[in-house]
Each structure stands twice: as structure tokens, then as C-alpha cells.
């Protein structure tokens, strides 16, 4: 879909009913707003990140009519900020899909899925083989894989950029950090990309995708600058 894979949530039971937990999402959001009052610079960074989600299509604001249409799979995910001390100008929004409401949470209804990560020891050893090292990463890897439309109602969240405005409902359209099946779904999409290359494109690029990624981090080494440029450009 628009050059991105679309992968559904890994439900344990398709008929499982989720309690509508909008109240806990609002409660947690109000706590977040209190934190914003104490840290106004965090509020600016957080708002910018949400706006970026909307601009890139990772999140979508629901109309009043859309928000009022609910089902047994309607679920809201509280969210909060995580700041890396090594990246003080950036904030990561983490969705708490483990937040419980009436003894239930989204993560408990999902399979984690098989571990598709490469062995880290193997990656590091292969990285030492060549004289030219290359390191990179897939930017916002989870957000590069879309969620099937039928499952998006289970990844709603609430937001407003001004405490004087009403709280509005949003949905995420992509897999998100904090959901238990996201690593598996997104690693599968990456490996499927390699499968496509094997199906008639470049076998060497397929091998690179399959063997030299650890989640979104890429580590590889080459015998020459020319070879490094050929594979990575």
C-alpha cells in the first residue's frame, strides 16, 4: 500500500471483546498535561512529534461521528514521553499497550510472534570481516509498516495541543512502539522485502537485508569503498 507493507495485529482470538477504556486513556493524558505544565519545552517537542505523525499519515484525527462509532475491538492506548539523554532535542512517544482496564489490556490479546531478529553475535562478527565498515538504521521502522484498516480501531489514542480545547480521538495507522507484536510484524515486512529481491532483483541486496540487520540497525563491512557504495547507495 503506497510502497509500504500492511500487516494486521497478531490476535490470539479474533472474537475477543475489549472493554472500551477511553476513561483510562483520558486520565493518563491529563497526567501528561500536568507534566507539560512543569516542562513546557517537553510540551513543544511532544506536540511537534504528534503533528509530524499526522503530517506523515502515521496518525489520523477522527471526526465526532467516526469517534462515536465503536465496536468490541475499540481500544485506547495511553501514551507518554521518553527522552534519550544522548538526544536531548528529540522525544520518543511510547504507547502503553500494556495499560490494564477491567483486568484487560491490548498486549495480552496479541501474540508476540516468532523472534525474527538476527543473532547479534553473528552480526558483530561479520561486521569485523571487511576493512570498510558501514552503519545505518531504518528511520522510524515501526511506522514504515501500516496496520490493516480493520485493526486500527484498536489503536486509538486521545490528544489535544491546548488544555482549553476539547480532547479529541485519533487512530494510529501504523505499528507503534509499545505494542507487543510490532517487532515481529515489522521484522517480517523487512524480510519480505528481501524475499522480493530474491524473486528477480538483486540476490546480494537480499542477503544484505536478511543477514546484516538487527531490528532497524544495519551493520556491515566490505573489502573496498567501491563495494560499500555499490551495496548501500
Report on the architecture of this protein.
This protein has 233 residues and is an alpha+beta fold. Helix content is 34%, strand content 16%. The protein has seven helices and ten strands. It has helices at residues 22-38, 40-56, 64-67, 120-127, 182-198, 203-211, 225-232, and strands at 6-7, 59-61, 79-82, 92-95, 132-137, 146-147, 156-159, 168-172, 213-214, 217-222. The strands form four sheets. A three-stranded antiparallel beta sheet has the order 2-8-7. Helix 1 (22-38) packs across helix 2 (40-56). It is globular and about 60 Å long. 21% of the residues are buried.
Major sheet attributes = 3 strands, antiparallel
Total number of beta strands = 10
How many DSSP H or I helices? 7
Order of helices and strands: EHHEHEEHEEEEHHEEH
Main structural class: alpha+beta
Q: Widest sheet: strand order?
A: 2-8-7
What would the average pLDDT be, to the nearest integer? 92
Span between termini: 24 Å
Radius of gyration from the alpha-carbon trace, in angstroms:
20 Å
Quick one: overall form? globular
Quaternary status of these chains?
A: single chain
Enumerate the spans where pLDDT stays under 50 for 5 or more consecutive residues. none
